[in-house]
Design a protein that fits this description.
- The protein folds into two domains: about 1-50; about 50-80, no CATH class.
- The chain contains one helix and three strands.
- The protein has one helix at about 1-45; strands at about 55-60, 60-65, 75-80.
- The mean pLDDT is about 80.
Length: about 80
Amino acid sequence: MKRLLEYYNVKHLGMMKMTKGIFIFVIGISIVMFGLNVGMSHIESQSSSVSRFEVIDTYQGCDVVQYLPEYSGRYYFFLHCK
């Protein structure tokens, strides 16, 4: 009976170590995900301050303006005459 209890305690300690490792792993992943979320928010807030309008040339006294809408891969061009 004593051996059975010793075996159970040793096995139980092994499970505790494994559970502790899993817990530390989950906490680590959570911290990394939080850091990525904060970092991506910071990058996104910096990119929104960039002007999406740019004068790239002139044509017959008018400015040729290039416009890049947010979340778009297309450029739009138009003339701005004063």
